[in-house]
Amino acid sequence: MREGQPSTIYLRDYTPPTYDVLSLELSFDLGEDYTRVNNEAVYQRRDPSTTTLELMGEQLVLISIAINDRVLAPHEYVVSDTGLSLFNFPERAKLTIVTEIYPQKNTSLEGLYQSSGNFCTQCEAQGFRKITYYPDRPDVMTVFTTRITADKVKYPVLLSNGNLVEQGTLADGRHWARWLDPFPKPSYLFALVAGNLLHVEDHYTTTSGRVVVLRIYTEPHNIDKCDHAMQSLKRAMYWDEQRFGLEYDLDIYMIVAVDDFNMGAMENKGLNVFNSKLVFASPETATDFDYISIESVIGHEYFHNWTGNRVTCRDWFQLSLKEGLTVFRDQEFTADLHSRPVERIESVRTLRTSQFAEDASPMAHPIRPSSYMEINNFYTMTVYEKGAEVVRLYQTLLGREGFRKGMDLYFQRHDGQAVTTEDFLAAMADANQVNLSQLQHWYDQAGTPEVTVSLDYDAATQTCTLHLSQTCPPTPEASTKQAFLIPIELGLLASDGREIPLQLQGSTAPAANAMVLRLEQAHQVFSFNHVPEKPVPSLLRNFSAPVRLHFDYTEAELIFLMRHDQDAFNRWDAGQRLAMLTFKRLLSDLSSDEPLGLEHEFVSAWQAVLTDESLDVALRAEALTLPSEADIAEVNRPADPSAIHTVREFVHTTLAKTLRLDFEACYASLQDHGTYQIDAVSMGRRRLRNICLAYLGRLRESSINSLCVKQYADANNMTDSLAALSVLVDIDCPERTKALQHFHDRWQNDTLVMDKWFSLQATSSLPNTLEHVKQLMQHHLFDMRNPNKVRALIGSFTQRNPLHFHAPDGSGYQFLTECVLELNALNPQIASRMVRPLMNWRHYESKPAAFMREQLERIKAHEGLSPDVFEIVSKSLAA
Ligand code: TRP
Ligand code: ZN
Q1: Which backbone phi and psi does 763 adopt, to 5 degrees?
Q2: Is 301 a catalytic residue?
Q3: How far is the CA of 718 from the centre of ligand 1 (A)?
Q4: Contact at 8 Å (CB) between 536 and 560?
Q5: Is residue 268 lining ligand 1, measured as CB closer than 6 Å?
Q6: Which ligand 1 atom sits closest to the C-alpha of 109?
Q7: Whose CA is closest to atom 1 on ligand 1?
Q8: Pocket lining: 260 vs ligand 1, CB cutoff 6 Å
Q9: Is the pTM of this model over 0.90?
Q10: Eight-state DSSP code of residue 127
Q11: Does residue 379 line the site of ligand 1, with CB under 6 A?
């Protein structure tokens, strides 16, 4: 809790550690009232100018300290709220510290805590200091030995990082185990688990022939839902060998699933801890989206073994060094295993919806921030998703082979080290003998660059000229920006849809159908020779850089690109642009009281996508998905959420009415019989079919309600039953009530499935939704201490129900404030994530903006506000 204001930490203040840790022996005595931690470490001075050893520690009860077995007197050290200072510490000495902690009372889910009665840890970023006094910073690495003692009946399984080296039973009903992790690691990768767990086991043989034991540990009732996670792990291990030549390095790889977890999962060396929602899957309980997420997060944590663990971060400002790179790797993994264009579209959709908004917010920060108050607030869309886009820039510029050379050199140089993003850039540049220094601006400057393009065509000389310019809006760290290096992949399309060979003026390279331009300056001009007619440009193909690209396309040109662009991403994007133009026009018609109408060309473009059976089903589904209300709000500021809801509903309903027969025919044609499959085609078919059902739902006809009920009843998988239910949830009809009750009764013993039930109701557009959410908070299965429940009910309402969250009377905002204040005392990390929807209050019209601001003020004035929430609200209100 806050004493005065939390202070700001700056990257420029970084100094190397003053002592090294030569070895560390931890010993845990896990109890019901308290846990005793014995920490025996050998420290070796590194900085000759100091004799003070500073250790971090929070919420610890100190029992004793000894140097080389001599117990210290109180005047030999100073204990504060944040750590322990030891004066005149020897050049080299063994330090033994005994402390007590209270995991059963720990609701922050950071440090050592209990979930469903089992012990587990979460140390990243700075949770280790809630376990013991230690130099809890990622550039201090050592070999960990961990001894765990606990009651044998309650906690039969005792796990930590590395290999089990010894175990035994004690006379008093307790037992112990000793684990040794041979790889030096920072404290944030430490993990301990103790509980009543079962495991499934499998094996993987690496390319070089080593056999690795794979285990997934869970509470007994979920043991039958681990198969997909296990298969995903094996696929990830194989993929990293094939694509990057990287093998696993220990004899055992363990994953533990827990119900109470602040994030998705954690890459602790040899002992990953996972949010159970990212492990358990069966066709009846998990959706296609869940299956893909599980595979991708299993991959993500596994890939961290090299990008994060073997090569780690020097300090927390470098977080994107491991996270951006590992997200890039998990995206490539998903793309290689399923559909590359679908993966790309999904990733870009997330980036545009959430990261662009963050980049336009008072919390905007570069992928490598230069300051923070609370590091937990920087596990963001920017550090992760934009960070991955910046890694992708290297691959776009260097090609896959050049990128691989850079990765190889990075590991060759830095294995076993704690490094910076500059080291990564240098390895990429040196391996390819190119100068990439301009890419550094992507690490230091926040904000989404805006690229504006215009095209001239000179028929006489058959020359096509592109004028490109870039700007970047001011963000908290800088008001003026230096030009970014922006790779722009493009093609030029002739009127028959074919690509015109690109012959760049001044270049001797042979003509190619597509190429990557390097935009390096504020303004640049590129001319192409031998262009026989005025082309339609396909710009920023495959989303080659995380920018907003502006080109004055006509609606006809967008429809042309939707049909003909060879780049699947841009075909999709043309449809999104067309929809955005349409929304803009409808919003202006709505505000001037003009009747709303959809142009025939728009409807037939949608019809073409819906009915063209030669197109990939999954891509048709993506194309038929309109930009979200949040997406529309971001580009129509100041936003009026209720007007946006109205026009988006209007487009949906009009399309449903006009294309009803096509939706019905498509729906009928995509019925799958037989067993549930999760390959790209089967998933694409379900997706498209369920989109058809959602459109049809807009007709508000009882026959459609019955169709939903039938699909719900017939479904042999969660994807289809949930899709049917999510159509009904917006319709005030008896079928809705019955189906929700049925779902409740069927799944009330499956906590993960019940999250879907909570979430569904929170996103309903029906008028009494907020009241209903408040009632659901009283449901006996709802629990404020469980982050999944909070995200499912409160998070879904505030982040995925803009209509009701932005209710004109401010009730949605008020509700969020009350939740945030309650969470603040229980779990600051979750409180601080939940408060974020208020952050962009300046993007709304004056009335909602004033209400939102008022709530931020109310939170800021709250006694005992955590640094986590304080940082977000104070930055949101500043400037
Ligand atoms: N490093 C984790 C990842 O794979 C992130 C993470 C998991 C985390 N749990 C956390 C970060 C708790 C902060 C706090 O992305
Ligand atoms: Zn990660």
Answers
A1: -95, 5
A2: yes
A3: 28
A4: yes
A5: no
A6: 12
A7: 266
A8: no
A9: yes
A10: T
A11: yes
Contacts of 207 (CB under 8 A, 6+ apart): 241, 247
Which superfamily does CATH assign the domain made up of 312-444 to? Neutral Protease Domain 2 (1.10.390.10)
* Tokens 């060879």 found at: 566
- Kindly report, as residue ranges, where domains of CATH 2.60.40.1730 are found in the chain: 9-196
227 three-state secondary structure? helix
User: What backbone phi and psi angles, to 5 degrees, belong to 58?
Assistant: -140, 140
User: CB count, 10 Å around CB of 205?
Assistant: 10
> Measured between alpha carbons, how far is 83 from 464 in angstroms, rounded to an integer?
65
CATH 1.10.390.10 domain locations along the chain: 312-444
Nearest to 137 by CA among 48, 55, 24: 55
Residue of the CA atom closest to atom 3 of ligand 1: 266
Q: Which of 108, 124, 325 to mutate to test the pocket of ligand 1 (most atoms within 8 A of CB)?
A: 124
Low-confidence ranges of the chain (pLDDT < 50): 1-2
Domain 9-196 class in CATH: mainly beta
**Closest C-alpha among 826, 815, 808 to residue 866:** 826
pLDDT in tens, 685-703: 999 999 999 999 999 999 9
Quote the tokens at residue 394: 């290297």
Q: What digits encode the pLDDT tens for the residues 507-554?
A: 999 999 989 999 999 999 999 999 999 999 999 999 999 999 999 999
450-545: what fold? Answer: Immunoglobulin-like (2.60.40)
Q: Are 457 and 464 in contact (CB under 8 A)?
A: yes
Q: Which one of the listed residues 301, 385, 489, 634 is annotated catalytic? A: 301
